[in-house]
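Issue 218. Parser rejects a valid record. Input:
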Amino acid sequence: MTLATARTAPEPTLKRLPLYHRFLKKLQPAGKESVSCTDIGAELKLDPTQVRKDLELAGITGRPRIGYAVSSVIDGIEEFLGWKKVNEAFLVGAGSMGAALLGYRKFEECGLKIVAAFDTDPLKIGRTVRDKHVLPIEKLADLAQRMHVLIGIITVPAAEAQAVADLLVTGGIRAIWNFAPIRLRVPPNVIVHNEDLYCSLASLSQKLACELHANPPTPRHSPALVAANL
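Output the parser choked on:
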């Protein structure tokens, strides 16, 4: 994989490839050695042609009438997505969301290792959260430069996020995973991925409203009545 190839991969493809990877990892314990685009598409409710195009973009090719070797596709996806190399990251904001991310062990399987957390709260600084030390934010920029950490994760309130992003950039951070509900201003050479939970909830709520309008639910007991019978 070349850097140019990685940059030209469409965002929808980058979101689908991990789904293929997860499905294929489930096939390995069952001893299944080969798989087709039709198999993947049927499992994930995707067009097999789209699956084939995604795999081709990742540099993965199959054999006519045989398909793809499961292990080769898994290996190819991991290589393409950069999961072969573990990238260390700093997390800023050791609150409830930050703690949840610190405790998510699957990140290392995807090439991400959170090595430290930072905060401004004296009650959090010096503590250990999910086996990670919480350090004062004043140490972030210097440590990022010394340790050559390139990924920063922001889980602070919106009002604090831009200042944190500026500090990350000062420390040489090149990619920011932003969980704060705000669009950050960063230099052109810094990548920002916004994980906007508000937008996701809005999408979920609107889709549910449409579904309920088309297929009204059957009447059920009120929450107060249910609580009274607990």
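Fixed in the parser; the record now loads. Residues 1-7 have pLDDT under 50 and may be disordered.
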